[in-house]
Amino acid sequence: MFNSSPVDSWEGAAAIFNSAGSTGVTIWFLITIALCIIPVIAAIKHDNKADREHG
Amino acid sequence: MSPEEVLAVVNAAANVSMEAYYWWCTAIMVCIHAGFMMYEMGVSRSRNVLASGVKNILAFAFMIPTFFLFGWWLYWAYGTGNIFLPDASAEFAQYYVPWSDGMGPNLQDGASGVFWAAFTLFAATTASIVSGSVIERIRMGAWIILAVLVGSVVWIIGAGWGWSGGGWLVTQWGYHDVGAAGVVHMISGFFALGILINLGPRVGRFNADGSANELRGHNAPLTIAGLMIIIIGFFGFLGGCLIYPAAMAGTAADAGWLTIYGSPATLSSFAFNTLMSFGGGIIGAYFITKDPFWMMSGALGGIFCAAGGLDLWYPGTAFALGFLGGVVIPYSHKVITSWGIDDAVGAVSVHGTCGIIGVMAVGILLGGYPAPMEGVPPITFTGQLVGAISMLLLGFIPGYVVSWILKKCGILRVSDALQNFGLDEAEIDTPSYPEFQRSQ
Q: Buried-most residue among B7, B37, B75, B217 (CB within 10 A)?
């Protein structure tokens, strides 16, 4: 569906991951950061809820 | 030394190191079975703990001779492009009949034994995946038949189709599944679903109105530790999915690691992406459930969601796919339970659903990567879709049909009375915790 290959041939290929050398990597990089931060926020909220209900 | 002598020494050293590599991959893969055994015993109620353990051990044990007798041969007989009938005339199929020179100690062939061993452990993994779903109510004889069927017949046909350079899914559709998301996990997950439909739920799992009761296992810490041990084992499994460079030392293809399809790869790419998807799966499941059972299942599901393209993902993509797996599996399990299906460990969700994600993520996100061989299509969405449908049907149909036959023969399911009595005392004649009162 998305053509993300940075190579047309394996001959002499170096970085072969999806979207290597394009803005796609920046997008995946930002998604990774977001998916780390959002659960931390959820964890804090969960702790607070547990504290309110049982603390 | 002459150049020829130097090459001979290099080849000999390389072949020995190749043997050692697969030997240790196989040893590490045993952790998958140790982990599954702990996991299933923990999920079982205290009256069924040892029966669940015996079931798991027997599946592993039966896989070894049956994979020697016909499983390994089937791989090579389906690896030349045949879909329905095995190609007995294929060169390696002839070489790997169980009475050939290649199927035993042979000083000119150091590779066959260690490759066979690694594949035998892959086969045992498929049976272990199914094993947890059916605990506490499947009869031992039926289980052995079904375990051998999935491990030494069904999945290895799928491997011949889509996990070998000559399989029809690869040569005709460019199917790409280096870490066996479809070949192992989809097939096993849907094979389990086929059985579960005929096997029925454990006594007490569902009420008359269709609502489900939670049948809690007797030991959650054992379950969670078992899941972690499985993950150790999967490092051996995934390492064993690569072709060691020395296997072809002295040839044009001796430059580095190769995938099962013969495309160049690095062990580093597997390291990046296995760990990132593992972390993503745990965090995703924590985000949704806060439940350590689903968090560790999420670690597995996360790896399977990235397994198809472990050689090609940007690590951030593998992390996101793992996260997706961790988020999806509890919901997927809920849907399957709402159909009245009692999957005791969520294997259909963790392996089946995440296997689909793993295969289709390659089609959606990795389009255009070239095949290693001339005349073979690149990775495409359509090719992965054909592969996913093939793996789903190849897993589900034999699981459903053979368990239906076993059900009609009256040898599939433990009676309700025996389930209530407990399988440990009835079948094993030993309680698992004799000094403690058992749960009901």
A: B75
List all residues 6 or more positions away from B412 whose beta carbon is below 8 Å from its beta carbon. B138, B139, B142, B198, B199, B403, B406
Sign (positive or negative) of CA dihedral A7, A9, A11, A17? positive
Q: Which residue has the tokens 């004889």?
A: B141
**Higher-scoring residue by pLDDT: B175, B432:** B175
Rounded to whole angstroms, the Cα distance separating A8 from B86 reads: 34
Residue B331 exposure: Cα atoms within 13 Å on the Cβ side: 10
Q: What's the whole-number mean pLDDT along residues B47-56?
A: 96
Task: Work out how many CB contacts closer than 8 A connect A with B.
Answer: 78
What's at A19, amino acid-wise? Answer: S
What does pTM read for this prediction? 0.96
B359 or B439, which is more confident? B359
End-to-end CA distance of chain A: 51
Q: What is chain B's Cα-based Rg?
A: 22
- Map out the domains of chain B as residue ranges: 3-428
- Segments making up each domain of chain A, as ranges: 22-55
The yes/no answer on whether domain B3-428 falls in CATH 1.10.340.30 is no
Is B256 an 8 Å CB contact of chain A? no
Neighbour tally for B348: CB within 10 Å: 28
Contacts of B200 (CB under 8 A, 6+ apart): B137, B342, B413
Give the whole-angstrom CA distance, residue B398 versus residue B126: 14
| Mean of the per-residue pLDDT values of chain B | 94
In chain A, residues with a C-beta closer than 8 Å to the C-beta of B378 are 5
Q: Which residues of A touch B287 (CB under 8 A)?
A: 38-39, 42
